[in-house]
């Protein structure tokens, strides 16, 4: 029997409405507060990241009459005998399926419980997910590892030992110079953090990319060659002080950075006005050090 055209249209409308409603329900599940920087990503597509453990379950335990229990109050241990059978509720760990990537505020490796990493999720907004707003933990199997993405800002110490200088006025060829420069950089970092359960401890290694702005001070040797475009006479070498400003990109390897810069050196002392490269751009090759990451990786 053929359904009327109107009935066909009604069935199609119901089907589309169901699909849209189902899609919205999935998209709203485990929805978190917006956070654009300084967070980790727990991606269920990565190995061992499709589930976490939270102490949100409950079960009943029976304490038998005659049992002795020990209670700690104000620094004292008190023994007490149970007079009658007593039923109590205790919290238990529940396995939570991660249905979409979670943002994590911070993590902590548990030194006393090997293979576990505590996670503090970014706030879940839906009322149905309110139980997820608690500390969770991951279990890493022995001799296996997990990978977490980490988007964050960071201050690092930097040095730029080599500068690639362009040619000047057809009189000086492009060349590589070396000056003593040391400073700091503020960077935006996209890291991949690897945590491996080595049975006795969880070992962390970090690799990633960084984009930032560096600045600091440097020392320059002035002589006839480095001041040849000026009318000054530097038969005796002098030293000058510069301020460097330089945006750059880098590769992060376990707290150590290899960096490429496009920067400017600005003379701070009067004699730097004679320097050929004062206030001229250059390409720099440098290194950065995140002392906190280096310390964690060596411990």
Assigned CATH architecture of the largest domain: Beta Barrel
Global geometry: elongated
> Nearest-angstrom radius of gyration?
31 Å
Count the DSSP helices.
2
DSSP summary, beta strand count: 15
Between the first and last Cα atoms, what is the distance in angstroms? Answer: 77 Å
On the 0 to 100 scale, the average pLDDT is 84
Protein name: Outer membrane protein beta-barrel domain-containing protein
Structure description:
- By secondary structure, the protein is mainly beta.
- The chain has two domains: 42-59 and 88-139, no CATH class; 150-298, Porin (Beta Barrel), CATH 2.40.160.
- The chain has helices spanning 5-28, 291-298, and strands at 39-42, 51-63, 68-73, 76-81, 86-97, 102-109, 116-121, 136-139, 145-165, 175-177, 180-197, 202-222, 238-253, 256-267, 281-289.
- The termini are far apart.
- This is Outer membrane protein beta-barrel domain-containing protein.
């Amino acid at each position: 029997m053929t359904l009327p055209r109107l009935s066909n249209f009604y069935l199609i409308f119901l089907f589309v409405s169901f699909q849209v409603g189902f899609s919205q329900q999935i998209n709203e599940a485990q929805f978190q507060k917006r956070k654009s920087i300084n967070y980790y990503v727990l991606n269920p597509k990565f190995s061992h990241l499709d589930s976490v453990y939270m102490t949100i379950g409950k079960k009943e335990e029976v304490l038998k009459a005659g049992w002795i229990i020990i209670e700690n109050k104000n620094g004292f241990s008190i023994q007490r005998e149970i007079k009658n059978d007593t039923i109590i509720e205790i919290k238990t760990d529940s396995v939570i399926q991660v249905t979409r990537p979670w943002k994590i505020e911070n993590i902590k490796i548990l030194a006393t419980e090997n293979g576990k990493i505590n996670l503090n999720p970014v706030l879940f907004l839906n009322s149905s997910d309110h139980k997820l707003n608690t500390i969770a933990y991951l279990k890493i199997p022995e001799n296996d590892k997990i990978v977490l993405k980490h988007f964050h800002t960071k201050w690092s110490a930097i040095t730029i030992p080599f500068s690639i200088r362009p040619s000047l006025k057809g009189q000086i060829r492009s060349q590589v110079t070396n000056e003593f420069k040391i400073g700091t950089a503020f960077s935006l970092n996209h890291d991949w953090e690897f945590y491996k359960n080595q049975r006795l401890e969880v070992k962390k290694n970090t690799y990633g990319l960084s984009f930032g702005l560096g600045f600091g001070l440097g020392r320059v040797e002035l002589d006839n060659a480095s001041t040849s475009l000026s009318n000054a006479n530097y038969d005796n070498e002098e030293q000058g002080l510069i301020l460097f400003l330089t945006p750059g990109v880098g590769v992060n390897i376990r707290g150590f950075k290899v960096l490429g810069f496009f920067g400017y050196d600005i003379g701070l002392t009067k004699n730097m006005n004679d320097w050929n490269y004062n206030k001229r751009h250059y390409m720099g090759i440098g290194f950065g050090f995140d002392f906190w990451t280096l310390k964690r990786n060596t411990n």
